[in-house]
Amino acid sequence: MNVFMLIGLFYLLRYVKKIQADPEKSLMYAVVGDFTKSNADDQNINANTDLSWRTILTLALFIG
After folding, report:
1. CA 64, CA 53: separation in Å to the nearest integer?
2. What's the CA gap between 64 and 57, in Å, rounded?
3. Rounded to the nearest 5 degrees, what angle is found at the Cα of 15, between the Cα atoms of 34 and 20?
4. CB burial class (10 A; 0-12, 13-18, 19+) of residue 19?
5. Distance of alpha carbon 44 from alpha carbon 24, whole angstroms
6. pLDDT digits (tens, 9 = 90+) for 31-46
7. Which of 11, 15, 40, 45 is 20 to 30 A from residue 23's alpha carbon, by CA?
8. CA 48, 50, 55, 57 torsion: positive or negative?
């Protein structure tokens, strides 16, 4: 593993322990909103998407 990955993982795990102990210290604690609305919007977008032969070819080239 890369040294920077280990340092980042250490800080991430430290942050998780801090948030589990006191959720008010979370960066997202004060964010208020209904996140389920955005999921419904995404489903409507996906329902109306058509795949053309050009899109399929492009995906096949990138996926391999």
Report:
1. 16
2. 10
3. 65
4. middle
5. 34
6. 766 555 555 555 666 6
7. 40
8. positive
Residue 24 contacts residue 30 (beta carbons within 8 Å): no
Tokens 């990138």, residue located: 62
Please name the residues in contact with 18: beta carbons below 8 A apart, sequence gap of 6 or more. Answer: 25
42, 62, 46: which is closest to 54 by C-alpha? Answer: 62
Q: Report the candidate in 45, 12, 53, 20 with the shortest Cα–Cα distance to residue 61.
A: 53
Q: Tell me, what amino acid is at 31?
A: V
Q: Under DSSP, is residue 33 helix (H, G, I), strand (E, B) or coil?
A: coil
pTM, 2 dp: 0.47
